[in-house]
Amino acid sequence: MSDLSHIDGLIAPRSVAVIGASDDVTRIGGRPIAAMLRAGFAGRILPVNPKRDRVQGLPCYASVDDLPETPDAALIAVPAKLVPETIEALGRRGCKAATLFSAGFAETGAEGEAAQRALVARARHHGMRLLGPNTLGVYNVGIGYYGTFSSSLDTGMPRPGNIGIASQSGAFGAHLGALARDQGLGCSVLITTGNEADITVADAIRWMAESDSTDVICTYMEAINDAPALLAALDAARAAGKPVLALKSGRSAVGARAAASHTASLTGDAVVADAVLSDHGAIVLRDPETMMDIAYAASKKVFPARHSLGVVTVSGGAGIVASDEAERVGLPMPAMPEAAQAVLKAALPYASPVNPLDCTAQALNDPSLLDLFTRSGLEEGGYGAVLCFLTYVAGSRAMSDVILEAMAPLRAAYPDRIIAFCALGEREVLQRYDDAGILVFNDPCRAVRALDAILRLGAAQARGPGPALPEVVPVALPEGPPDEAQAKALLAGAGIAAAPERAVQSAEDAVAAAESFGFPVVMKILSPDILHKSDIGAVKLNIGSAEAVRAAHAEILSAAATHAPGAVVTGVLVAKQLSGGVECLMGISRDPTFGPVAVFGLGGIFVELLNDVALRACPFGPETAREMILSIRAAAILQGARGQPPADIDALAQMLSRLSVFAAGAGARLVSIDLNPVLAMPEGQGAFALDAVIELDGQEEAAHGH
Amino acid sequence: MSDLSHIDGLIAPRSVAVIGASDDVTRIGGRPIAAMLRAGFAGRILPVNPKRDRVQGLPCYASVDDLPETPDAALIAVPAKLVPETIEALGRRGCKAATLFSAGFAETGAEGEAAQRALVARARHHGMRLLGPNTLGVYNVGIGYYGTFSSSLDTGMPRPGNIGIASQSGAFGAHLGALARDQGLGCSVLITTGNEADITVADAIRWMAESDSTDVICTYMEAINDAPALLAALDAARAAGKPVLALKSGRSAVGARAAASHTASLTGDAVVADAVLSDHGAIVLRDPETMMDIAYAASKKVFPARHSLGVVTVSGGAGIVASDEAERVGLPMPAMPEAAQAVLKAALPYASPVNPLDCTAQALNDPSLLDLFTRSGLEEGGYGAVLCFLTYVAGSRAMSDVILEAMAPLRAAYPDRIIAFCALGEREVLQRYDDAGILVFNDPCRAVRALDAILRLGAAQARGPGPALPEVVPVALPEGPPDEAQAKALLAGAGIAAAPERAVQSAEDAVAAAESFGFPVVMKILSPDILHKSDIGAVKLNIGSAEAVRAAHAEILSAAATHAPGAVVTGVLVAKQLSGGVECLMGISRDPTFGPVAVFGLGGIFVELLNDVALRACPFGPETAREMILSIRAAAILQGARGQPPADIDALAQMLSRLSVFAAGAGARLVSIDLNPVLAMPEGQGAFALDAVIELDGQEEAAHGH
């Protein structure tokens, strides 16, 4: 894990040199200086430009060597070809952090990539950290530091606040910053990482996780360039109680095409990334507006322990719309206790006090009803959050006086819950509610989605950390590709059961094997030379007696002798014939970003047509495996739908967990594992891999190492 | 279909009496007068109140009888108990339209419902139309008519425009109006229908469809009280080229519970309602924000014929986010033609000109790039809409001059396409783009969703009206419940094929039947007294020869004689045993709102666990049936996935269409039909119902009639 101290200098410098400083406030070398002057940056700004004595009223220095002090940070706004010597001069001078606005590196092709690598080597030599190249830079609102040339500042400066943004894309990061500002939200920092030659979004997230100024972390990623660092950063943020809202683009075929052409690195599989980021506590989103809504709610730092919503409404219709959205996103809206309903009904006979709690337009004449219904939702309903649909009613100044008087004591009495309004009106009026600690949304459905995210976070925090990861021991893999029997043997060593089977050399051994398993059994020829055993009659199913075993043994050997006279026959395989279970599929694939990923699904159409699978990075324990198994849409089939007996989900979970541990221990040579089908027998009767294929990569070990 | 002339008087009156007029501008009888005075209503306002000579500066009349003229409309703001005499007085006076603000009718229970029915009878007697009771009323922005007591006007008056709103819920309708206003959108009318004792949202929609002032119709419904009128209104709006955006609440279990308790009528099945409303051209939504976004886009009245999107962006990241959203909602983003890509690449070497078309931040220095990329998207790309992601860059006044200069000629050159911006900034700056005919959104994903809806509408308009509905002829149903054979015979009369089968009385007849069908066959006992035929061995499958038919015949009769000695045996059924097809399910259920609805799905888990079905109101033709069949998620199985031969979808579509025609002709006694399974054979080999159950309702005909 990289040292953050120099990143601190990059994001919160006490002095900054601007190499290529300009008097023109619309140029890359002029914008940062103008912004810092406007914002009253408390540190020293040190312009460097050989052609000027002063820049924007500040003393200007001819070169890095002429600087009167070693700056904490440098902003480099010179053409690409001048960047190496600039880095060198800064390094000699002892500067430890540089932001490289300059473009023309890895994003332009192989030559630029080589130049970029050389830059990093040069910087490392001097112990200097680099942001960029091809970055829009950084701003740090609290100290007025604007190491950025973003024109987003032309339409207004950010408001100070506790929402931090880390983005690979400069323009998109600045869009998020401007969106926050236009929605009245306060930001701490914006960090855009560009080509990520050195500093990545992972570093930026970790810096924010450790910084006092940031409580909510928004991040936009196109490619994950250092997965272990990113996951460690997410873990650090989670440990610090700071939500991470992640927008990972490149989900669609079109999007992935654009991402690959846009950045210098490949976009990983979005589905895997979603699963892994969520697993590390990130809230994965797909649109900036939802990100800002959740960031707004999270910025208040109230994360109730219960994932449940009460809706108090002056409009029955709005209550229904909000309820529909809650059901759609899976946010529970339990009914009020009957005794509490009776109390509310007594106070307002026409009320519908179940949940939504409809206090009708009567609450406008009598705001004590609003207080009563909301209080009852918090106290008797016990909801993690109560959303009050007040629409334009809350938007007039006169009503806001009355409403605030009713709600302020409630806000104080339930500090660990959320009270949110859906309200329309002038920003100044709505701001009064926000100032009183009440969340304000314009749209009931956006409110429901944001509250759902916050309540899920709160419930996860209340549950505490998940189960510890299982211990991984290195797995010795064979040199060459394992055949089915070897694959099953390898997996058996990891505790993964196949159907009982035995290779035999005689008819009597076959009978003994069959009797030890119990009938019926399956028998097939064992020969490395015979691929299509069924086609030549060398596979027999459903063999039900000792006599039939003897007959099958003879027939199989005879079929092999007749149809494949030259083949080496090493014996006959006798296996217990299993039936009555549910066919599942388990597998491992190596994700280029996250390493081995386990997948679980039901056999057949569920996987092939509906893509109904659960994914997880390896390793994980049986509790997690159980969650995965139950998370697929078709899980009801395993639980006993359609008259089937419930399947042995415990055994499946053990097998899936052991498979994940095996994959984690097998290292980078393991390309994939397919257990297809796995037969999940009825409860208590186990789960068995009926086939196993392990694919190894002998040659490209280095390419897969991380 | 009801006469709209009196509704016209209700929504656009030249004179309005206010019964229960008040000087207090916060009271129900005071608010409408204050609002009309503020808005400069051009008609006459006639306050009625026995206790006052003047109200809010206007002459006030002691009673309806004292009015100096017959008003076009009356607003009734008196307590429920005084409403009947008020209606009577207005009726005597010749007033033809009254808005009943008063509550205390059907929403309060059986007594109120009876009072409400009596009101309607009294009004009908006088030829008077009623809005409400329990309505928030109507406003008509263009003429300054405010027949409403909504406090939404306290936070500002609506802007004039061409978006009309019809809502059952008063507060929610007013919320939509306030939302439109706060988002800078212009409205024509707001009509809230309350208890819908007489006038329904269907009437309101039809009025808007015929009114020149409205081009886009937004509607909010909790219950559909007059389905044929609603569908006719939707058809009228579609014929007039006016999009209807429908928010039908009560989707969720919680929502439906709230809807039932909130209104005086039951909420129909939301899934059926969605399907039927969509089928009649409505855009069905679930949140008010999306409704307003689409209404905004539709208000410009440009509906391109091609459902395709081009994205021009100054930020690669934003282009990807927009692409991901487009893929999610199913909006195609075809790649640019290669020749056009080459031209763009020549103009800007680092551009990524596929689609999204990334013109990079370089477009800020050279706005001609923005023009070039957008023009190329419209011309060579041929996209129905081009969305330009310009974010804060477009938000400064200086840049807006430059951008408008570049884009205005384009706007003029492609009047049948949409140009939309995603931009952040002050409303005044963004308004300049809107004034130039460019749609402006803050969020790229909201923009994509709104454009998708508009482009779908445009493509549907370009396709023209769908196929004509098939002719329905009345079906004669039996008195009692039909058994399987009778059900199959009834359906056979409608052209719906079962597997070939014949009842026989001898072994030789059985052989003849089997030989006429071809082997194998199925045989089973025919007896009204034996229910569980398989259990006693009276069903034989897979009978492959004449000899086996004779044996089976004897065994079946013997099994029946042994195990059910007293049963009446009417013969033996011989049926062709079909195999090799795909098991499907077809059925009819009677929706309480929309009558017979056809459902199609694949057999088994697809329906039971995944609810993967297509729905449609009956009747419909085979083209529509084909669309339904291909719309299910598992349609690939019918098209030949997993190594199966493609199924006979034409035969399935014919069967489904014929079933819909049968159901439409069967009338209200038909409760349901289940054809489960229907076996879809390989292409060219037909589809056959293997079982058929028809449920009739003899007793409750009246209850099901509509």
UniProtKB/TrEMBL annotation, chains A, B:
Top-level taxonomic group: Bacteria
Protein's name in the database: 6-carboxyhexanoate-CoA ligase
ATP-grasp domain residues: 488-524
PROSITE patterns: ATP_GRASP
Entry's family note: In the N-terminal section; belongs to the acetate CoA ligase alpha subunit family.
Pfam family for this entry, one: CoA_binding_2
Record-linked SMART domains: CoA_binding
